[in-house]
Specification:
Helix content is 40%, strand content 22%. By secondary structure, the chain is α/β, with parallel strands linked by helices. It folds into 2 domains: 176 residues, Thiamin diphosphate (ThDP)-binding fold, Pyr/PP domains (Rossmann fold); 128 residues, 3-Layer(aba) Sandwich (Rossmann fold). Helix 4 packs parallel to helix 5. The longest helix is centred in the first third of the chain and has 15 residues. It is globular. The mean pLDDT is 97.
């Protein structure tokens, strides 16, 4: 094990996969400037900057993937994905199906999102549910350095397009990363804390908020189980249902807005498949239906905080 920040873990995953597979290439907005070590090792043909033209970047990636390459593209901020929706959803996401499996589209699109860096609404929008709803795509959103590395390696090796979201404040958060080959499979949630009274489900940086809340709840005699989804699509339904049946109470927490968010799908799955085990209604604690503010103080009010998680669990406990 070694300690590193998330940005270093991402860099390790990229370098290891590029060494392992010569078809892996990377391009996008500022990638050669930010990852000079990759340019030095692999050359400008495999790591290159592009113009700020998200649709062209994503369309080039889809075409490159169809010809047998494994492109990784950095589109910087999640709201900029709006400029590449046709290329990601109508091309990369659908053409494998439309072609009857004659082509595959093994590409990874990286985008940053989440409050904490005060970048304002046009650079911060938790729009992950859009892509979860889109057929043909896979979506991941890790919470720690080890999972960033392991999930990125899995995403690069996958034969389908994967949207890889980075919660911005996690970029410089340190964590332990296993030495050697470290792979985290897509579609597998992680139980970060065992509990018997309530299940708290989250992903990305809000997982750490939920862990903080679980520690506070333990002090008042409430045992909370905390699950990190890690992979939003495919979703680890078994882990969610097993935990819901174990505790009988479920709280889902995420920064994205409530309406049609990932939490709505998780709540529906649990209601459909574990209703008989529930002791209380499934609750959701989310961000508001509003653009993200640029003020740091307002950003903190915008995001779910540990005290709100504690209050929601107390409500569940009656």
């Amino acid at each position: 094990m070694s300690e590193m920040i998330v940005n270093q873990a991402i860099g390790e995953a990229l370098a290891e996969e590029m060494r392992r597979d010569p078809t892996v290439i990377m391009f996008g907005e500022g990638v050669a400037t930010k990852r000079k070590d990759l340019v030095a090792e692999f050359g400008s043909e495999r790591v290159r900057n592009t113009p700020m033209a998200e649709g062209i970047i994503a369309g080039t990636a889809a075409g490159a993937a169809a010809t047998g390459l494994r492109p990784i593209v950095d589109l910087l901020f999640a709201p900029f994905l709006c400029l590449a929706m046709d290329e990601i959803i109508n091309s990369a996401g659908k053409l494998r199906y439309i072609s009857g499996g004659q082509f595959s589209f093994p590409l990874v699109a990286i985008a940053m999102t989440g409050g904490g860096w005060t970048v304002g609404a046009q650079h911060n929008h938790n729009n992950e549910a859009w892509f979860v709803h889109s057929p043909g795509l896979k979506v991941v959103m890790p919470s720690n350095a080890a999972d960033f590395k392991g999930l990125l390696k899995s995403a690069i090796r996958d034969d389908n397009p994967v949207i890889f979201f980075i919660d911005m404040p996690l970029m410089y958060q340190a964590g332990e990363v296993p030495a050697g080959e470290h792979i985290v499979p897509l579609g597998k949630a992680a139980t970060l804390r065992e509990g018997k009274d309530v299940t708290i489900i989250s992903y990305a940086k809000v997982v750490h908020t939920c862990m903080q809340a679980a520690n506070t709840l333990a002090q008042i005699g409430i045992s909370a189980e905390v699950i990190d989804l890690r992979s939003l699509k495919p979703l680890d339904e078994k882990a969610l249902i097993d935990s819901a049946r174990k505790t009988g109470r479920v709280l889902i927490v995420h920064e994205a807005s409530r309406m049609c968010g990932v939490g709505a799908e998780v709540a529906a799955i649990i209601a459909e498949q574990a209703f008989d085990a529930l002791k209380a209604p499934v609750l959701r604690l989310t961000g508001p239906d509003a653009p993200a503010p640029s003020s740091y103080v307002l950003e903190q009010a915008f995001m779910p905080q540990a005290d709100a998680v504690v209050a929601a669990v107390k409500k569940l406990m009656g």
